[in-house]
Amino acid sequence: MSLENPTTTFSVDLTTPLGPIRGKVEVDPGPMRLRDLVPTAYELTNILVERAIQREEKEGRRISCRSGCGICCCQMVPLSPPEVFYLIDRMERFDTSRRQEWLGRFETIAEELEKQRMLSPLLDPEYSDEPVLSIAREYFSLKRVCPFLVDQSCSIYDDRPVACREYNVTSPAAGCVNPYTYEVVKVPMPLPLSAPLAILTAERTGSKPRLIPLPLAFHWAANHTDLRQRQWPGLELFHHFMDVLGRTHEQWPSG
């Protein structure tokens, strides 16, 4: 903690279908970027996932997901804008060779999407949730694994997005080979916290809420460099995030 920017304790009191979440978070009142909200969103997601799994196990259901089973990593993972910026910044921790390998994989997928005429629609600023199912189905059919999947394991596991954290199934793992044909039973979860992050970004920028497919994170970020670096007072931004969470909790399904 620096003397110039001492942290301030912020109370979190959130009602969810999986029970209340109450605690204290240390927030730097100094300049904060959108990406700085992501660790809190990830931590809240971890709590919700743990509770959801405990509920499943209490009712006699077991999680089918196992280490080495990476077929779900062929799905189109949606990221909120803050998650995009967080992921790109976190990649800078790794050595140049590892980053270049990842970037090459991102580019390969982007080229495939361009060939399939899917790139422009997915990067369209007016992209909405309406066509997402058909696009997701088409994307899965390409069988392009996530750029971060190495030897059937996530190479950025600790930094994985909200959508990856909350994706757990209790149906037989064999069905995940084609989730659009076989019945895949996901563990019921509240509204993904990527949604409040997207809503907050929209409200801060006067735009529409949107999610970005993970393989196109770099393409999207390259066109939003100013937003990536933009800063707000820390307490103001964090309070806004908590306010959005409070407003969106009414949309959460009971599970």
What does this structure look like?
43% of the residues lie in helices and 10% in strands. It is mainly alpha-helical. Helix 7 (194-205) packs across helix 10 (234-248). The protein has ten helices and eight strands. The N and C termini lie far apart (40 Å). The protein has helices spanning 38-58, 81-91, 96-115, 119-123, 132-141, 162-165, 194-205, 217-222, 225-229, 234-248; strands at 8-14, 21-27, 31-32, 78-79, 149-150, 153-154, 212-213, 232-233. A hairpin with a 2-residue loop joins strand 5 (149-150) and strand 6 (153-154). The longest helix is centred in the first third of the chain and has 21 residues, at 38-58. The chain has one domain (8-251). The strands form four sheets. The protein has a two-stranded antiparallel ribbon with strand order 1-2. A two-stranded antiparallel sheet has the order 3-8.
Brief write-up:
The protein has 255 residues and is mostly helical.
Total number of domains: 1
In total, how many beta strands? 8
Structural class: mainly alpha
Helix coverage percent:
40-55%
Major sheet details: 2 strands, antiparallel
Task: Tell me the layout of helices and strands.
Blueprint: E1 8-14, E2 21-27, E3 31-32, H1 38-58, E4 78-79, H2 81-91, H3 96-115, H4 119-123, H5 132-141, E5 149-150, E6 153-154, H6 162-165, H7 194-205, E7 212-213, H8 217-222, H9 225-229, E8 232-233, H10 234-248
Antiparallel strand pairs: 1-2, 3-8, 4-7, 5-6
Using brief descriptors, characterize the structure shown:
mainly alpha, two-stranded antiparallel sheet, two-stranded antiparallel ribbon, 43% helix, 10% strand, globular
